[in-house]
Amino acid sequence: MGSDYYETLEINKNATDADIKKAYRRLALKFHPSSNRETGSSDKFCQLGEAYDVLSDPRKKATYDKFGEEGLKAGIPPEFGSSGAWSSKYVYHGNPDKTFREFFGGDNPFADFYTNDAPLQFGGLKPGVVKTQDSHIERDLHLSLDDLFHGCTKKIKISRRVMNEDGFTSGIKDKILTIDVKPGWKEGTRIIFPKEGDQGPNNIPADIVFMVRQKSHPLFVRQHNDLIYKAQITLEMALTGFSVDVETLDGRLISIPFNDIVHPAYNKVVTREGMPLSQDPSQRGNLVITFDIQFPEKLSAERKHLIKQALA
Fold first, then answer.
1. Nearest Cα to 18, choosing from 208, 246, 171?
2. Judgement on whether residues 199 and 266 belong to the same structural domain of the protein
3. The pTM is what?
4. Residues 227 and 277 both lie in one domain
5. Which residues does the UniProt record annotate as the domain J (predicted)?
6. Residue 225 lies in a domain
7. Which residues contact 261 (CB under 8 A, 6 or more apart)?
8. Are strands 170-181 and 220-223 parallel, antiparallel or unpaired?
9. Helix (H) or strand (E) segment spanning residue 238
10. Are residues 172 and 235 in the same domain?
11. Using one digit for the tens of pLDDT, what is the confidence trace for 217-236?
């Protein structure tokens, strides 16, 4: 009775190319003579090589599926070859190690499990270097002050290499990463997506790390959890009193009166009108109002005299 290549690989006749590769990968590693000393393992390893050599080749597989092992190895009339069938006599080269190395793409057939280039030891596998993770990939995440005040959701599309089901080929696929920005996050906050980098047979994918970068704001400068607002006032206002209207990040308009003389180094702290605290967004930093006092470029003699009288 001839060989049943499908039975050898423990698959059915509806198996896809990926199924065939996956089955050979699993069984060839299991029965490789370097790791399996049981009686019959070498013969099984050779049978696996021949079965994979046939079923992984579309023309050989088409011949085998239609004419069986006898038709494959005895040859079939050329007129039947037009459908893609194998019309020459098939003879397996008899070197299952060659099939094994070609499948895994290197001289070290266990390269998927070990990252060093040490030769294969047939007295048992030489311990190799454990797979190491690729260095993390860092990207900036630019957010407005409003984003960091209210919180928001950002969706970012990445393209990365992903391993196919067969375990050794790969392709580029897109993926959407979702970042839920929490109120109060600061410049430098790190968001880590573990193992979302490129996949490969011999590596652990890198972590992707997004670093918060705060965009500048036209009115406020952030200092930790406080917001700094610089009001431009005239010298007259600084000496005689005024009020400052500030539109907050949550859309309210607050008015702060100043009845005393304001000097350049003076600042006013308005509590709980700053940024939310990331640990507890119900708590807020402060709003700090500083001043840029605009002095007149020149004064007439009369005005100088009046100022002297007022300050005397």
1. 171
2. no
3. 0.58
4. yes
5. 4-68
6. yes
7. 238, 239
8. unpaired
9. helix 235-240
10. no
11. 999 999 999 999 999 999 99
